[in-house]
Design a protein that fits this description.
Blueprint (H helix, E strand, L loop, with lengths): L8 H4 L5 H7 L20 H15 L6 E5 L12 E8 L9 H4 L5 E6 L5 E6 L8 E8 L3 H15 L1 H15 L6 H7 L1 H11 L1
Parallel strand pairs: 2-5
Antiparallel strand pairs: 1-2, 3-4, 4-5
Length: about 200
């Protein structure tokens, strides 16, 4: 079981405060202190994900798990930070010993721990592929509403050109602003994300 029930964060989408962002990091939270750099869509991103997912799958073979490509690099045509967002679902994210040591040889390190938000963990590292600078591996429990939400958003953007363009335009506008932390840029997109999700059903 997750170590705590989910907080109010998924429902109200309240932006995280600086203190909340800093508290979630296992080590010091990296500061951005500037704009976000987006890259045009790169058709090599799905291949980079597939190669990484195969390596993760090998390392986690004894553990019941599922891997999915999420985020903007998973949507053809979307500009994105050249960072692969990967969803990993496991029986219990709080049981870090079940997956964190196994992924260390791939250069993935536990970076964020959010026990009150679906027991979310985030591992970061490099994908070992020239198309991407980094990987964010989001770990959630099985049958988690947040993973369902992320995949519904991805699938809708893949199918709906108008909403894909709306999201791309929003990303470009927000990326030009200065942000202290990357999370603040992510939170600023919440309003348009929720608008698109309502249309996605």
């Amino acid at each position: 079981m997750p170590d705590q029930p989910p907080s109010a964060r998924p429902e109200d989408r309240t932006p995280m405060t600086d203190r909340e962002i800093e508290a979630a990091y296992v080590t010091a939270a990296p500061r951005l202190d500037g704009p976000v750099t987006l890259a045009p869509y790169d058709p090599r991103w799905p291949k980079a994900y597939a190669a990484l997912a195969a390596r993760i799958g090998e390392r986690l073979a004894p553990l019941a798990h599922r891997l999915d490509h999420a985020g903007s690099t998973s949507v053809p045509g979307l500009p994105a930070k050249p960072v692969l967002d990967v969803l990993l679902t496991v029986p219990d994210p709080a049981d870090e010993d079940a997956y964190v040591p196994a992924l260390a040889p791939l250069g993935l390190r536990l970076t964020i721990r959010e026990p009150g938000w679906y027991a979310h963990r985030l591992l970061r590292g490099t994908p070992g592929h020239p198309a991407a600078d980094a990987v964010n591996l989001h770990v959630f429990p099985e049958d988690c509403p947040e993973t369902a939400r992320m995949l519904r958003f991805r699938d809708h953007l893949r199918a709906d050109e108008a909403d894909r363009e709306l999201y791309a335009r929003t990303k470009r506008e927000l990326s030009a602003r200065k942000w202290t932390y990357m999370q603040q840029y992510a939170d600023a997109k919440s309003e348009v994300v929720e608008e698109i999700l309502r249309r996605a059903g």
